[in-house]
Design goal:
single chain, 26 strands, 22 helices, seven-stranded antiparallel β-sheet
Length: 595
């Protein structure tokens, strides 16, 4: 059963929760505070120090739980716990009726994926004797080492190389050995690869050594025994490591070895080796336990490294996916299984003409209402959504028509895992308005330029021209005989019907340029450019596009034009479309006029 302190750590997603049971065994008090000095977690030693149960401590203010005194005066709770002055000063606490001298060390961890924490280690200051100073592993040294690793940023930030170096250096110093090495299994567990070997005498780190199960089968079997440690007091006499004696231990003058197995996610992933030189060594139980605890820090460093790498891969994949989405010609919208938006590209925003404010999480209802308000048949749209909701694995493709005449091709497919679990749905939208216009135009062009002749042709021509280009007016005109400045129309289409022909003086009209051999295109403001063009002003014309009609000798016979009471869309694709259509009709009209 997990302790409440461990559960608290997991809720905060702090990576050291895995070693909380180990820290509970320390005699030094350890406590983690929020940046407002609230207690997030503490070990058993801290609870004992303040003479309270853990549930009474968690969430409380540190200064209320543990008042500190210096030279008989209560320390101000505004004191900066991270300051050098704080960490250099010795303090006193009152335990019952007795004063206890203590020293505190602190560190601050602030990672994007972790809760911000101030980590305090509170060490009692006992009188030191010669015997405990000279002991290879005295309690003071052990606690110093564990406190150092618990506060090491390298261990909890995913920098595996730095973390392993800190761990091996600390282990070598604490157990008074010359070498400490970390060996990890390869993927199929046929080899142990040395990822860090620290030599204290030369103060250097080595990597790259290997041990294979074919060369050392007995040693590999020992590692599968599920023991916490493999203790070898004399490598020359222990049969368990005889395979390593001549090839590894004796050439390096190693006479005693202590291996602590590294466990991660319930599996042995490697070994932490303490290598003692000069003479055999009888390892104590305390030393075995300490070695196993340090191996837990190796596991923690590896877990943090793996998680950091996974997060980096996730960030990279997200960047690639975003780049692909933004490069797509389609508008893309992805929703999760709860119908919440999880991703979209800028093309989607542009196609649906969405204000960025509507894309905020709390605006989803307003966004959906806005989308429906644009559609010609919102009920059909809702019916499709309901069907796909009831059939999450279905693939859908159809067309949706907008009130403003636009037409979108809509395609949708599920987002599913390999096991079939549904994670949502992705939608692709493509504006096919111009494609449909072009298809309709081809049919109308065939009708308008091939099925009639003479007067009927010209009338069919302007009718089809208005339908294809979606303007309000179209006409075909020719120069009035013997009147060089007068132009008379031979077919006029206005709105949805033929209009009466008329004659006008081209002098003040844009068509004057056409009879000089130019194409005349005015996307907007034509009456501003030709204020005396009375007919255009009366009709409220804003845009004008006209081409000359020439005979086989290149002589201008007349002209063809489209006009509208709104501006012509100035996109390259639309202008190209308008020009190509008008030229087709102009070519046929010129031939018919000459005939």
């Amino acid at each position: 059963m997990e302790s409440e302190s461990t559960t608290s750590l997991k809720k905060n997603h702090f990576p050291l929760h895995q070693i909380a049971p180990t820290l509970d065994l320390m005699s030094d008090a350890v406590v983690w505070l929020t940046d407002s000095n609230k207690i997030q977690w503490c070990n058993q030693a801290f609870a004992h120090l303040v003479e309270k149960d853990k549930p009474e401590i968690l969430g409380e203010d540190f200064w209320r739980i543990l008042p500190l005194y210096c030279l008989g005066k209560l320390v101000n709770s505004e004191l900066d716990l991270l300051s050098t002055e704080f960490q250099k000063t010795e303090y006193e606490i009152l335990q019952g009726q007795k004063w206890q001298r203590v020293k505190l060390s602190s560190n601050f961890l602030a990672q994007a994926e972790f809760a911000s924490s101030i980590i305090l280690t509170i060490q009692k200051l006992p009188s030191r004797t010669r015997s405990n100073i000279n002991c290879p592993l005295n309690q003071f040294q052990q606690h110093e080492a564990l406190s150092h690793l618990a506060q090491s940023k390298a261990v909890v930030t995913g920098d595996l190389t730095a973390a392993l170096q800190v761990i091996t250096e600390t282990a070598a110093k604490s157990l008074a050995v010359n070498r400490v090495s970390v060996w990890l299994y390869n993927r199929n567990q046929t080899k142990l690869e040395c990822v860090d070997l620290y030599e204290k005498e030369s103060n250097r780190h080595l990597v790259g050594l290997e041990r294979s199960n074919t060369a050392y089968p007995e040693y590999f079997n020992q590692l599968k025994s599920n023991a916490r440690t493999i203790v070898v007091n004399d490598v020359r006499q222990d049969e368990r490591v005889k395979e390593l004696k001549d090839s590894y231990f004796l050439p390096a003058k190693i006479l005693a070895n202590l291996d602590a197995l590294i466990w991660l996610a319930g599996e042995i992933i490697g070994v932490l080796s303490y290598e003692h030189s000069e003479k055999p060594r009888v390892w104590s139980i305390d030393e075995e336990n300490f070695a196993a605890v340090i191996a837990n820090f190796v596991a923690l460093a590896l877990e943090t490294y793996n998680r950091t790498q996974a997060q980096n891969r996730l960030a990279r994949n997200h960047a690639l996916l975003t780049a692909q989405q933004e490069a797509a010609l389609d508008g893309i919208l992805a929703i999760d299984e709860h119908q919440r938006i999880i991703s979209y590209n800028q093309k989607f925003v542009e196609l649906w003409q969405i204000n960025s404010q509507l894309l905020k999480p709390h605006k989803h209802r307003q966004l959906f209402a806005y989308i429906l308000s644009q559609l010609q048949e919102p009920e059909e749209f809702l019916s499709t959504l309901e069907y796909l909701k009831q059939h999450p694995q279905a693939i859908s493709r159809d067309e949706i028509t907008f009130k403003d005449g636009r037409v979108f091709d809509r395609y949708s497919s599920p987002i599913s895992a390999n096991n079939g679990e549904n994670y949502g749905r992705v939608w692709y939208f493509r504006d096919i308005t111009q494609t449909q216009q072009r298809q309709a135009a081809l049919s109308l062009i065939v009708e308008g330029v091939t099925t009639a002749i003479g007067k009927s042709f010209f009338q069919a021509c302007v009718r089809c021209l208005v339908a294809v280009t979606r303007v309000k007016y179209a006409f075909i005109a020719q120069i009035k005989q013997d009147k060089s400045n007068l132009v008379e129309t031979i077919a006029v289409w206005q709105d949805s019907e033929l209009a009466e022909n008329f004659t006008y003086d081209m002098t003040n009209y844009p068509c004057a340029g056409i009879y000089q051999g130019r194409e005349v295109c005015c996307l907007d403001g034509v009456t501003t450019l030709f204020p005396q063009a009375e007919i255009l002003t009366n009709l409220g014309i804003k845009s004008y596009f006209g081409l000359p009609l020439t005979d086989s000798e290149g002589k201008i016979q007349g002209h063809i034009a489209i006009l509208d009471d709104k501006p012509i869309e100035d996109s390259d694709s639309n202008l190209e479309f308008q020009v190509s259509i008008l030229k087709i009709f102009a070519s046929r009209a010129a031939a018919e006029m000459q005939r």
